[in-house]
Amino acid sequence: MNHPAQLAALKKPLPESLLAALKSLFGERCSTSEAMRQHHGRDESSYDPMLPDAVVFAQSTEEVSDAVKLCAAHDVPVIPYGAGTSLEGHILALRGGVSIDLSQMNSIIAVHPEDLTVTVQPGVTRKQLNTEIRDTGLFFPIDPGADASLGGMAATRASGTNAVRYGTMRENTLALTVVMADGRVIRTGTRARKSSAGYDLTRVFVGSEGTLGIITEVTVRLYPQPEAVSAAVCSFPTPGDAVRAVIQTIQMGVPIARVEFLDEQGVKAINAYDKLTLPEQPLLLFEFHGTEHGVQEQAETVQEIVAEHNATGFEWATRPEDRSRLWGARHNAYFALLQLRPGARAISTDCCVPISRLAECILDTKADCEHHDMVYSIIGHVGDGNFHVQMLVDPNDPADIAKAEGVNARMVTRALAMDGTCTGEHGVGMHKMDFLVQEHGDGAIEAMRALKHAFDPRNILNPGKIVQW
Amino acid sequence: MNHPAQLAALKKPLPESLLAALKSLFGERCSTSEAMRQHHGRDESSYDPMLPDAVVFAQSTEEVSDAVKLCAAHDVPVIPYGAGTSLEGHILALRGGVSIDLSQMNSIIAVHPEDLTVTVQPGVTRKQLNTEIRDTGLFFPIDPGADASLGGMAATRASGTNAVRYGTMRENTLALTVVMADGRVIRTGTRARKSSAGYDLTRVFVGSEGTLGIITEVTVRLYPQPEAVSAAVCSFPTPGDAVRAVIQTIQMGVPIARVEFLDEQGVKAINAYDKLTLPEQPLLLFEFHGTEHGVQEQAETVQEIVAEHNATGFEWATRPEDRSRLWGARHNAYFALLQLRPGARAISTDCCVPISRLAECILDTKADCEHHDMVYSIIGHVGDGNFHVQMLVDPNDPADIAKAEGVNARMVTRALAMDGTCTGEHGVGMHKMDFLVQEHGDGAIEAMRALKHAFDPRNILNPGKIVQW
């Protein structure tokens, strides 16, 4: 892991001339207030904030380019800021510098319903996008829980509950506009659904967490709203039963749109938070998209599968309000869990394994949590083999934090031994840099570093994240 | 375009010491015979061969690494060779050097049916793969027509008829083993279905055409064989009717597995070649995958849509032998077409546009072909907005070739003006380098060049392809 104190030692004061230039360019949209810097120096991880020296609110690609050019001329770090919902310390200003807030770049640039594509500015959030395109009959499926910005989602290679059916930002991003480290503006693709035209720059930037360039436009795929949607919920005597039911569902190729696992503690938390009365046992929450008959057929197949795995209380939720209540509760799980230990902070882990190893990985991780008396819950996008352990820790107790980090480290090691990955969807940020090396090995890390050096030769783009310089 | 004569001037004779070292390493699997060099100095493009100085047949990642290390030490180009089915001059040895033939690396390393993944050596062909995994109940969908090798398909970001449903090599490659320009071996991913773990090296190499590294293992996703498959064929009075029917099918979100367009000339060619009696009019060939009922439902929806677009002769092919006959004919279209003008060579074009512009792009291109009296056919994976014009030219008539290149250039310009791409699936090779610049602009090309320089600082990996050094 990075050592924040060590890195902060590299921090230089912001040159007066740069600040003057930024103020002249951005006027009141350039701030150095403590409150503003605090707000931009943290994400939803458990890290203490590390503040940028200044924050500018960009309103166009040109402004981002101008800000980057100024910072480049002064060798000052720039850190793009979307909605601040990242979880691994992605946007902390390790070496100070300028946070470029993109939230005011929140226009939908062009919807092409006939092509199932939309181009947006990076500050557009996923909920905003779906609200604005609702009457086209299309929707954008990727749903990481938080109301993240599309620019941030692309930068983190986000996914979430729908990925099992619709893929992640990796599969759904068609093109990006990117401001490079020297302020040049490039476009990485077209609106064609597929292309073999040279190196895949779009996917070089998707998941690059602001370290290779700053994303200022995002073109993504949209999907027709399904003719029919239904949800189902059922409970299991053990987490192993639940996960094995999912494995079989995936192996049979049932095209489920979502399948979420919550362990007993997760169910307890959302029951309390959302005033629900779900049985306090491991639970699966399914969603089916398709034609009326197709949805019914999928649900029947799944009902047979879960029955073989000792499911009880299989219940339908075909009415939109019932579905919204269940999925709303699922999305609140993080906040619901925080209520279980007042004053605590959550450390959220993230790993993804080949589906056949999922039950084993979850059960071993659960045993480790129990062994260390953690207050925790396991939830997961289990159709992809992806799950999270949320652990509640006392932020003022280093021993408590160390215990949680131990669980996390062992979980990652376990996932890697199963040919899985140290992060399914949260990204690397500061927190997973050592795990990244463990996963990829020195050779591949060297290739990543070569890429970073080629695209950002002066290391000003969100420095200290993903790979060590 | 590159000027082969100019590039060939850079060619140096192969150092004797290198040849001796390769012979000592590969024994009889190192050849400098004229016939062997001829075979490895051409692909299925209309380019004249440009020969490597030597060919080695590698049998392991270590051997590839050893060969690359030797060539690197002598600053000699290395060109990976799979099945030789590329179409844009990908494997021509512009500056001579060593062709590393990977066809003997044709083992399936590990099938994980329970995870729907398989890891293969790069010389495994797609047909071989499907034959070897047949009894797992799974299949590998990507089907570029030719029986290409998996390594070559990854290197070219191949796709084909099934991409509309299952995606391309971009979406289906989970991990690669790659020999880098200095002989180091890296692995770019894991078998997890999704990951946010750092820069997406897998997709850096997918589509890099041997210019950034040599792929020596490929892990791809597999899919359960569908419970039911059916095909349908119908004819249209005009190509515009056919394409508009496809556009509507896609916009409605019908999950078709394949939809192929053949123009009148294409149908004539396959009728003659495959002894079929299809009406000699523009034609669509559909395939549906799903449950018994789902397939029927899709086909009924499609039947309604095509009827609105003046389709005639809608016919089912539910029996496997009838489906095979139709799809076999489609796959033979390239060879069938060659029979239309004996002694001719085919120039195959490739572009992809947003689906709403597809009819216009095809019709304008068709008009251009007619205007220039080309012997041609248009076929396409129209569900993706991707199509090909195959033009038959006299290889000894420069004027004829120039005429075809003119049609191609105008088609690409047209596609780019529609926010499409200069190549949907064939790749860049030598032939599309200028079009690549036209598509991406100098800034993005500069980023691609930075990537090439970072990964291959001495320009020994398949030099002269994708981007100018």
UniProtKB/TrEMBL annotation, chains A, B:
Keyword Transmembrane annotated: no
InterPro entries: FAD-bd_oxidored_4_C (IPR004113), FAD-bd_PCMH (IPR016166), FAD-bd_PCMH-like_sf (IPR036318), FAD-bd_PCMH_sub2 (IPR016169), FAD-linked_Oxase-like_C (IPR016164), Oxid_FAD_bind_N (IPR006094), Vanillyl_alc_oxidase_C-sub2 (IPR016171)
Transmembrane segments: none
Lineage of producing organism: Bacteria, Pseudomonadati, Pseudomonadota, Betaproteobacteria, Burkholderiales
Cofactors demanded by this protein: FAD
Protein name as it appears in the record: D-lactate dehydrogenase (cytochrome)
Family statement drawn from the similarity comment of this UniProt entry: Belongs to the FAD-binding oxidoreductase/transferase type 4 family.
Domain of life: Bacteria
Keywords of the record: FAD, Flavoprotein, Oxidoreductase, Transit peptide
